[in-house]
Amino acid sequence: MKFTAEQIASILEGEVVGNPNVEVFKLSKIEEGSEGSLTFLANPKYLNYIYSTKASITIVNKSFEAEQEIETTLIKVVDAYKSFSKLLEYYNQVKLMKSGIEQPSVVSEGVTYGEGLYLGSFCYIGKNVQIGTNVKIYPNSFIGDNVVIGDNCVFFAGVRIYSETVIGHNCTLHSGAIIGCDGFGFAPMADGSFDKIPQIGNVIIEDNVEIGSNSTIDRATLGSTIIRKGVKFDNQIHIAHNVEIGENTVIAAQTGIAGSTKIGKNCLIGGQVGIAGHLVIGDGVRIQAQSGVGKNLKDGEVVQGSPSFNYGDYSKSYVHFKNLPKIVNDLEVLKKNNE
After folding, report:
1. Which residues contact 44 (CB under 8 A, 6 or more apart)?
2. Is residue 35 over pLDDT 90?
3. For residue 216, what pLDDT is reported?
4. Helix/strand/coil (H, E, C) string of 248-282?
5. Contact assessment for residue 149 and residue 168, using Cβ atoms and an 8 Å cutoff
6. Closest Cα to residue 282, out of 269, 295, 268, 263?
7. Any idea where the domains of the chain sit in the sequence?
8. Which of 169, 241, 278, 320 is the catalytic position?
9. What is the CATH class of 100-314?
């Protein structure tokens, strides 16, 4: 797919300086630019590269004035960084602009869907599924019975959605995500074995949620596991049964949250965090990477460590921990001197 400088300038409301008909078909860093590529200059540290880049088109701020001869065609905009981000979003939308049902695929009875559906090869759509408009479901995906999917959702290859799941508008699920599998519920028996507890609830994912690759969200034992609007998950995250994640909370990779814990809105949770079950985590909480949380946290707390405690206290304690061998040695010297 090719675009001219004039077409790009029209999208970005920018001004072309150079050849308006030059074409690009790929993106590049400014220092790695080549013929046919589009790049941008926003950071002054990379200024020298604009005089040597081989990129066909470079997006720059309106304030930029060349001090040497340049080969690349310029598109001058108010904010080069934001404009390049806008262009990436536009490019991604164009790239994902597929429609139609590829074969072989299975669409069961009672399924309804809106305009613009894309269903990739080897997909299975269960009975009575409701799919909104402009939904893209990539190959090898499974959608169970009675699932509801809102408008403008994208499910990449290999997504698995179990029955009864409800997904809102503008959600993105990356490859390998599994939504609605059984919660981890087993009752200990007298003979030492474990009896499985049926998990008959579901998962509700609200609008504007993004779920990273190979993440798993368990269905509730009763009721719903709920992911509120605007939540963003990194890859390889596990959410147990009956957990609730508040609005606009962001969780980094390899974090696990045990059953029935409630997490507030606008929280930031680092990678490899473990959160025990049946806890209440307040709004605006910050949990540093590799922390283990075993107690409730109030609004705005910042914690680190395993078990986690106040971030400031952790940082002070860590300084002493690093010096522990010297401290022990000093104590031994004091002890000998007092004998």
Report:
1. none
2. yes
3. 98
4. CCEECCCCEECCCCEECCCCEECCCCEECCCCEEC
5. no
6. 263
7. 3-95, 100-314
8. 241
9. mainly beta
CATH number of 3-95: 3.40.1390.10
**100-314 shares the fold of 3-95:** no
**C-beta of residue 62 within 8 angstroms of C-beta of residue 82:** no
pLDDT on residue 56 = 96
Phi-psi region of 272 (alpha: psi -120 to 50; beta: other; left: phi over 0): left
Whole-number Å distance between alpha carbons of 167 and 132: 10
DSSP, collapsed to helix, strand or coil, labels residue 95 as helix
Give the integer Cα–Cα distance in Å for 56 and 304: 48
Place of tokens 């695929």: 105
Tokens describing residue 121: 């090869």
Q: Kindly tell me if the per-residue pLDDT of 339 is higher than 90.
A: no
DSSP per-residue codes, 216-239: EEEPPSSSEEEE-TT-EE-SS-EE
Cβ contact 144:111 at 8 Å: no
Q: How does pLDDT run across 104-125, given as a tens digit for each residue? A: 999 999 999 999 999 999 999 9
CA angle (257 as vertex; 252, 259 as ends), nearest 5: 160
Measured CA angle at 25 (ends 36, 96), to 5 deg: 165
155 beta partners: 137, 173
Averaged confidence pLDDT in the chain: 93
Residue 155: pLDDT band (50, 70, 90) is very high
Q: Can 241 be counted among the known catalytic residues?
A: yes
Distance CA 60, CA 81 (A): 8
